[in-house]
Each structure stands twice: as C-alpha cells, then as structure tokens.
Write a structure and sequence with these properties.
Helices cover 26% and strands 26% of the residues. With 304 residues, it is α/β, with parallel strands linked by helices. The chain has a single domain, classed as Alpha/Beta hydrolase fold, catalytic domain (Rossmann fold). α4 crosses α5. 48% of the residues are buried.
C-alpha cells in the first residue's frame, strides 16, 4: 500500500483554510508512484476551484519549478489549486519525464497513467471543477503535457507547452535527441479530440528546436478552416515576441502560439530564483492562466 500524508477534507467538513498551504502527497498504481505537492490558496472553503498540474523540466524539482514559474502566487491571487508532480532520479537520471518511451506515451500505461491518476486523486480529495482542469510543462514537462493532451482529453480542458515537443515525436532516447535538435522526422499523429493549447518557444532555443513547438500546436488542431490573428509585442523586460491566435469560426476551439525573439530554453517571465527562467520575457505563467480560464470543458472559447 502506498502511504501519503493527508489532511481532513475541507470540502466535506466545510472548513476554510486560513493561510496558503503546500501539501505533500504521493500517488501510485501498477506503473509506479510519484510524489507531488498541492498548493491550496488561503480562504479555500470547499467551493469548486480550477486545478492546474505543472510538470517541471529536466534537472528541475517540483519546488524549483514552483519558484521559477511563480504559479503559487497566481493561485493565491486568482483562486485555484496547483499540483507539482516530481520526477525522481530513479525514473530518469536527469529527472526528465520519459516522453520519448513507447509505454510513456499511451493511455493507461506508464507515466501518463500516473500523472492522470494523481490528477484524479486531487479531484477526489478537493472540490475541483471538472470542467477546469489544466496541465502545463516546460521542456520534457511540456512534452509530457502534450502526451496527456492526446491520451486524456476527457480529463484536461486545455494544455500549456513551454519549450516542449509533440506527443509521439520520438520513440527512443536516441531518437529523442535528434527530435529535440531538428523536430520529428514524421508528422506526429493528429489528436482525435483537438485540445486548446498555448505554446511558448524561444526562437534561439538550442536545446529544443522551435519547430517542435510548431509540431505540438499542429497536432492539437482540428481539421477545417481556422481564423488566424497575429500580434507583435514587447514585454516590460524588453523581449520582443509574436503572438499568433488560431481559432475555429464557431468558437469551439482556439489556441495561441508565442514566439519569443532572442530567447533560449527558459520559462519566459519566470523568477530568477528558479532554474531555467528568463525574467525579461512576457509572463508565460500569467498568460497561460488567462488562456486556461477562458477554456472550460464543454464550453466555447472566451475572448479576453
């Protein structure tokens, strides 16, 4: 039996959490187990809240990723739950999610089953709005988020990919390095259930080529005509970017593609106390939250 620390269920007892809390948990199934943290904002009284699952990148930890992205601060400000699964070295020596292995790209198998399982566990423990469950990640975490978008579209309403790759773009570790440099040689499979997606990628990323962001976005698109709008901008830190918004005329699907000019392999607008961050970029965390909160499962995309 897999043990995990628990607190009394506030949604059942109607108690309010008077201060923000980061709670340690562990989930396991036949594929293995992973520790994760859940950030609960102060004032939580059992009302239904959105949930964002954050997947760190290679060499990072859950705590490091929380600090770098500043997602806890936004959760407190806007009122939602955040989960941070942690990839141990026992699963990958450099703490990368194994997005490139066959079993780790399938529903009810490997790491996708663990990540989806812990998402459902959080939904069982807390009063999570089932229409507003999201997943986002950086680098290998972004690739793992893309896998979840394809394998569990029944759980997640939208996905955020920062400097990541499409699901199925590699089938082995050796192929993964090639794909990271040049993109997938063959077009990754199209999503059966198109998922709203927001993608960030630096055009000077030497770790994961920007073409991977293009492929991830293309994978999530529905067939048919799309309306495309492009905006050029500059962050308060001085970084130029191009934001492309793609949407169906009926408003049922929309996605965004942010190209960060001059940026490398780092979370845009992140806090320098966390690893792999670029504070000069636009605030990727806040923009992802804006995008997520405009997409609920079963609803139309909302413009803000």
């Amino acid at each position: 039996m897999i043990g995990r620390l628990r607190i009394a269920s506030t949604k059942k007892q109607g108690q309010s959490i008077d201060r923000p809390r980061a709670l340690a948990r562990r989930f396991g199934n036949a594929a293995g187990s992973r520790a994760y943290d859940v950030f609960v904002p102060s004032g939580y009284d059992g009302a239904a809240l959105p949930l964002v699952v954050m997947l760190h990148g290679c060499s990072q930890s859950a705590r490091d990723f929380a600090i770098g992205t500043g997602m806890d601060r936004l959760a407190q400000e806007q009122g939602f739950l955040v989960a941070y699964p942690d990839q141990p070295r026992s699963a990958n020596i450099v703490k990368s999610w194994n997005w490139f292995r066959d079993d780790d790209q399938r529903r009810d198998r490997g790491e996708p089953s663990i990540l989806a399982g812990l998402t459902c566990e959080i939904m069982d423990e807390f009063n999570v709005d089932p229409a507003r469950v999201y997943v986002a990640g950086l680098s290998s975490g972004g690739a793992a988020a893309a896998v979840l978008a394809l394998t569990y579209p029944d759980i997640y309403a939208a996905v955020g990919i920062h400097s990541g790759l499409a699901c199925g773009s590699a089938g082995s570790m050796s192929a993964a390095f090639s794909t990271m440099r040049r993109g997938a040689l063959l077009q990754p499979q199209q999503a059966t259930h198109p998922m709203p997606m927001i993608v960030f990628h630096g055009d000077q990323d030497r770790t994961v080529s920007p073409v991977n962001g293009d492929q991830a976005l293309a994978q999530a698109q529905p067939d048919g005509e799309l309306t495309i709008t492009t905006v050029e901008g500059r962050s308060s830190g001085g970084m130029a970017y191009t934001q492309t918004v793609l949407s169906e005329p009926n408003g049922l699907w929309a996605s965004e593609h942010w190209i960060l000019h001059g940026a490398g392999h780092a979370w845009a607008g992140g806090h320098p106390a966390g690893s792999h961050t670029d504070p000069t970029g636009p605030d990727a965390s806040r923009e992802m939250l804006r995008f997520f909160m405009s997409h609920a499962k079963g609803g139309r995309a909302q413009r803000h």
